[in-house]
């Protein structure tokens, strides 16, 4: 049987989460896979036309206006199509108090035009089936892969670093979806009842919650930082807290445990699906409850979980090579 030829379209150079996923797939999909090379708008259009003709299946990775053109062309030519969905723009904009009707329209049209919708975790796939019941039968999932170097570069022993017992770390800036205001309230409780020197280090872009977060005098907000700086913070922190009310995957959780940093993880994080052996003290059941968050931060300071969680990740099945094979199987 002739192998299926894929045209895998999407940003692979900007450094965003979806772009990095696209980059890893391009590296690991079979030889002969077509992908986008041009950034110029007119050249991209020409490229979409030519490569859609040449492909058996087209895959659009991540939200973009170009998806509409490409998926309409695929339908016209009788080519099967899939949308690799990294997040739900409509729902996330609503949570972040930044509703955008035009973005919602483009995303909804992308879902209508796609023959298959592939989510980046089972948790996210379950959400999509409920949020868009009209597309439930089209929804499938392939977990994001993990770069093997991410887990291999750490022996899970803090790389010889001495951790700052007072430092709690989180990522997400002022984005309401990350529920960092609740982490602030939890740290406030811990400063009163457990450690008066505890502080919260926050990185990420500004958002609707930025002013509230800044009102807590123990918060050190570093804004957007390069990855090597974030890595140093993972190596320094006593606990990394991921408290999102909606998180389709959450690679930062894997980055945290790979660098020996204990991680407290919202039950909404899709990445939990690839970590075996989690315990109640590792997971935030109610992301709106600062008392629970405070109690579990204290528990992880006194009984760290990074090595245990890292051991619960099966690198062989989570590698990008395996994930690419799984995606190819579904597309075939």
Q: Can you offer a commentary on this structure?
A:
The chain has helices spanning 17-28, 41-54, 66-76, 89-95, 101-113, 122-131, 148-152, 180-193, 210-214, 227-236, 251-258, 290-302, 306-311, 315-318, 320-331, and strands at 6-9, 34-35, 57-61, 80-85, 116-119, 139-141, 164-171, 199-203, 219-223, 237-242, 263-266, 283-284. It is of the alpha/beta class. Strand 3, helix 3 and strand 4 form a beta-alpha-beta unit. Helix 3 runs parallel beside helix 5.
Q: TL;DR?
A:
The chain has 332 residues and is an alpha/beta fold. 43% of the residues lie in helices and 16% in strands.
Salient structural properties:
15 helices, six-stranded parallel beta sheet, elongated, 43% helix, alpha/beta
What is the number of helices? 15
Beta-strand proportion: 15-25%
Task: Compute the CA-based radius of gyration.
Answer: 21 Å
Q: CA-to-CA gap between the ends?
A: 11 Å
How are the SSEs ordered, and which strands pair?
Blueprint: E1 6-9, H1 17-28, E2 34-35, H2 41-54, E3 57-61, H3 66-76, E4 80-85, H4 89-95, H5 101-113, E5 116-119, H6 122-131, E6 139-141, H7 148-152, E7 164-171, H8 180-193, E8 199-203, H9 210-214, E9 219-223, H10 227-236, E10 237-242, H11 251-258, E11 263-266, E12 283-284, H12 290-302, H13 306-311, H14 315-318, H15 320-331
